[in-house]
Design brief:
This protein has a single domain (6-132), classed as 3-Layer(aba) Sandwich (Rossmann fold), CATH 3.40.50. The chain is globular, with a radius of gyration of 14 Å. It contains five helices and five strands. With 134 residues, it is of the alpha/beta class.
């Protein structure tokens, strides 16, 4: 993949987002942020991203609704669900909705960074495969 990985973090916990963005930028990733689901979708309507890191519980539009909208408009865009409020049902819904990975907060940064890198690689492979189809 050429250039920096571009990651969108959609989460309403401002301090967490600022801290995570700083760490990912130090790992040579370009980071965009959105405080809620509607803002994330609006940002993605005018910007390209390689991976979305998405919280489940946000004001207004929740993470599962954002995931469903993204699957309609950008089926190959990897979404990593990162939430402090996970249970079996929300994990099932996130995975069934097309999340590339589901992680629990607090998550070790190395685990999240690896998940982002892996998701980005899988996206590149999926895009290459799609471009080869007749």
């Amino acid at each position: 993949m050429a250039g920096k990985m571009r990651v969108l973090i959609a989460d309403d916990e401002e301090r967490f987002v600022q801290s995570l963005a700083k760490v990912l930028r130090n790992r040579d990733m370009e980071v965009l942020t959105a405080p809620d689901g509607a803002s994330a979708l609006e940002l993605l309507s005018r910007s390209e991203c390689d991976v979305v890191v998405l919280d489940l519980r946000m004001p207004g539009m929740d993470g599962l609704s954002v995931l469903a909208e993204l699957r309609k408009s950008r089926p190959l865009l990897p979404v990593i669900v990162l939430s402090g409020h996970l249970d079996v049902e929300s994990c099932r819904l996130a995975c069934g909705g097309g999340a590339a990975e589901v992680l629990m907060k607090p998550c070790p940064i190395d685990t999240l960074a690896t998940a982002i890198e892996n998701a980005c690689e899988r996206k590149a492979i999926a895009e290459e495969m799609a471009s080869r189809r007749p």
